[in-house]
Structures
1.
Amino acid sequence: MIHVGDKVQEINGILVRNKDPKEMVMILSRLSGPVTLKLGPTEAGDTGMQERSSNTRVKALFDYNPREDPLIPCQDAGLQFKKGDILHIVSQDDPLWWQAKKEGDATSSAGLIPARLLQESPCRISPRIKRSKKVRKMMYQAVQSGEFDHGEIATYEEVELFHPRSGIYRPLVLVGPPHVGRNELKRRLIASNPGHFAEVVPYTSRPKRPFEEYGREYNFITREEMESGILAQRFVEHGEYRGNLYGIRLDSITSIIRAGKVCILTPNVQAIKAVRTAELRPFIIYIRPPSLERLKDSRKNQKAMVTLEDGDTRSFDDEDYESMTILSQKLEDTYGHLFDKVITNNHLPIATTELVKIAQSVETDPHWVPISWLQ
Ligand SMILES: Nc1ncnc2c1ncn2[C@@H]1O[C@H](COP(=O)(O)OP(=O)(O)OP(=O)(O)O)[C@@H](O)[C@H]1O
């Protein structure tokens, strides 16, 4: 927060506001030990700070602890944050170190955070590159000449507050490891207000079974129709199981939105990128399994069943619980920055209440969304 033109007001508590710089140097030269300077902006009336601050807000897509960052020029001046935190960027004057505050935390003072370019630099990506002064100098030069490829590395996402409008509802997307309970929670949410929430009917090339109805369990179409739809990118998600294709079509989602209902989706986590668009503006909720012990107990008590792709069911086994736990950690590491909320699905009624509350809040409260969705 120091800027060219700021004036020294105090040195170790001694008022020096209107003193000649030479006198200040004299005072400084007489001091030993730590020196604390109190600075103020040049303009009277303290408006300088306001004028300098920017309105940029970003969502952090990684965890950052200045105490573990050997590159930061001053660890005490760093701002610690977690993946998903919204940061108010106060200054981007320095190409490598931005100044930011935590959004919504009035007590948080501005601190240094690595700028996007620094975070995407080879020093960060490859820990083997020695973090020497020479490397830092090279980085500065590369940053200034724009040499870094900063395409795919998750650093910060610029966000803006989205104010919901009545009648146009954001789809709720429940993701998580297979069998964690996304469909169970979806069913319970829809049952809480059946006229308001709706689910999409998937498409399949599998032949209809006698007890099934067209457009109820699935929309049954031919394999050729499905393949041409996939090629034309009409599906946000598709996959093959036992020789049959299954998938969710984009127009199934948009028609629910146009009908003024809240669309609830439970796609594979890999489909997040296909649904996280300005057109759909989804709200993504990650369903996390509880601890391995609680997972086993709760599912055994409930006599839980694994549902297979084609609708058949089977019992859970120990491998299901273990792979769910391991996969959940991997999914959070890979996609965690895209989740708007996380629900731990331990006790079903509690998880359902939490989901109902989140659904209400998405309809009524402003939430941060990528700025590109609002432009
Ligand atoms: N919190 C819970 N406690 C006990 N049982 C649960 C809980 N949540 C879900 N279940 C049960 O676990 C089983 C699997 O749940 P569900 O089919 O909803 O999972 P899913 O995430 O939709 O899985 P899939 O990847 O197969 O679509 C169901 O029998 C469901 O009733």
Note: Confidence is low (pLDDT under 50) at residues 44-51, 127-131, 144-151.
2.
Amino acid sequence: MNVENTDPPSSLRNVKHILLILSGKGGVGKSSVTTQIALALAGLGNKVGVLDIDLTGPSIPRMFGLEGQSIFQSNEGWMPVSKYEEGTGALKVISLGFLLNNRGSSVVWRGPKKTAMIKQFIKDVVWGELDYLLIDTPPGTSDEHISIAEELRWAIPDGAIIVTTPQTVATADVRKEINFCRKVNFDILGIVENMSGFVCPHCAECTYIFSNGGGQKLSEEFEIPYLGNVPIDPTFVELIENQKSEETNLVALYRSQSLFPIFKDIISSIQGQNVPSRINR
Ligand SMILES: Nc1ncnc2c1ncn2[C@@H]1O[C@H](COP(=O)(O)OP(=O)(O)OP(=O)(O)O)[C@@H](O)[C@H]1O
Ligand code: SF4
């Protein structure tokens, strides 16, 4: 008889919270939002892991200034790339980008190979103790999403954060993403509207280039919490472009920037939902 194993993977045994970051469409800033939630959480003293399962376009190593680094295999499993930042919580990162030899290269894999890779990322990474594991997913509802839903079935994540932009709020893609979460039993922690207005660097006036309020309306329509809106802020792009991986304390720099208070509020809204630690569930 084939008895199904219902234990969560041992690699996630000491991970208190698992959050998935999803978006219906590409380019809405899902990886940027993942990075900023991670930096803000680390800046608040949490131990944070980031798992990038965007296998065809892994951008997470670049966002943390970790391009060119590699993950290595110990007897226990894959060791994530660790970014120790003095005076802050720890940051550990896993991405297929660390396994590709050439910067900027990507893979063209069929479903079964992607599934096998995601299985390894969930089962074989030595995360150790983490307060939060953030999982950055590809856009849409692809093979990677189906695989992660399957792999996390018994790991019981806290839920998903859906990232949208004011223009994509009205599209079918966001609705598809919400329906996907409901089908695979991922709780939805809320919606973040990214690139919602541009804050003038001279006068701090916010101009809503693409309309606003769509994310809020969507959250009301689907009865999903609204976590907040993030303006277009060139300082975040500069931070990513100008960091030198060895010397820059990215978390400390991020803490001094205008987006930090916005992400602190987003984190408060998530924590306000009081999802118990997985370790006590
Ligand atoms: N709030 C923001 N302010 C300024 N630039 C932003 C903001 N959010 C995202 N960007 C920029 O937009 C571009 C796309 O962002 P990102 O790579 O995070 O999107 P994505 O949804 O993860 O894309 P993909 O579909 O490739 O997974 C990046 O160059 C990023 O720096
Ligand atoms: S006041 Fe208006 S025009 Fe002047 S810098 Fe600010 S947004 Fe731009």
Note: The chain has nine helices and eleven strands.
